[in-house]
Amino acid sequence: MHVLLVLAALYAVLPLVWLVTSATKSVGDFSTTGAFEFGQFNLGANLSALFTQENGVFLAWIRNSLLYAGLGAVLGSFICAACGYAIAKLDFPGRRALFAVTLAGVLVPTTALALPLYLLASQLHVVGTFWAVFVPLLTNPFGVYLARVYAEAAVPGEILEAARTDGAGELRTFFTIALPMMRPGLVTIFLFQFVGIWNNFFLPLVMLTDPKLFPMSLGLYQWSTRVTQFPQYNPLVITGSLLAVLPLVVAFVLLHRQWRSGLAAGSVK
C-alpha cells in the first residue's frame, strides 16, 4: 500500500517539479538539458518576457482568471449553500423533484452544455463579453448536492425551530444560524468551485474571441499552439503554467483543514 501511495504521489508531484525546473531554462536549454535538470537559471528573464509579451496581455489574463475564479467561487458557493439549505431544511412543493433534477445535473458533462449556453448567450447578445463566461460558472449541481448533504448533517432542525419561535425570519435564520454551521462545507464547495473555474477551458474557448478577456488557461493554450513555429513561446508557456498553478496550491494550503472536515462530514452522511 505504501508503495502504491508513493507512486501516486510521484505521479502528482513530478509534473510540478518539471514545471519548476523548466521555468528556469532558456530556449536553448530545452534541447541541451534533461527534463528535471535546471538550466542557467533564466527564470528572471522568462518572467520579464512573460509579463511584457504582447503588451503585457498575461497580466490581463491573471486579472480575468482571478475575477472568474475568485468572484465566481464566492458567489457560486453562496448560491449552492442557499439552494442546498432550502432543499434540506425547508418544506415546499416539489422539493424531492428539484433534488432529483439536481442529481441529474451532476451527471451531465459541462462540455455538453457549451453549445446550448452559447446559443442562449447569443440570444442575449452577450457572446464575447465577460458575462458570457462568468454567469454560467455560478451554477454547480454538485455544489448544491454537497450543500444539501452538509446542511442535513450539520444544521439541527431544533435550532431552526427555536429561531423561528423567537421571531426570526427565514433569511435571518439562514444567514445568522445555518450559514455559520455550514462553514466547513462551504469551504469545500468554494474549493471545488475555485478549482473548476480556474481550470475551465472549453467555455471561454466557445464564448470569447478577444484575447484581453481570456483566462490564463485559454491564453496559455493559444500561445502553446505557436511553439512549433516560434520556439521563444516555449519558456513563456511553461513559466505561465507555473504561475497558474500557484493560486491553487495556496488555496489548498490555506483551507485544507476545513476542506478535509467538510468533505469527511459529507462522506459520513
UniProtKB/TrEMBL annotation:
The chain crosses the membrane at residues 66-88, 97-120, 126-147, 186-208, 236-255. One of its GO terms (biological process) is transmembrane transport. CDD domains: TM_PBP2. It comes from the Bacteria. GO terms for cellular component: plasma membrane. Belongs to the binding-protein-dependent transport system permease family. This is Sugar ABC transporter permease. Keywords: Cell membrane, Membrane, Transmembrane, Transmembrane helix, Transport. The keyword Zinc does not apply. InterPro entries: MetI-like, MetI-like_sf. It is found in: Cell membrane. Residues 62-254 form the ABC transmembrane type-1 domain. Its main location: membrane. It is a multi-pass membrane protein.
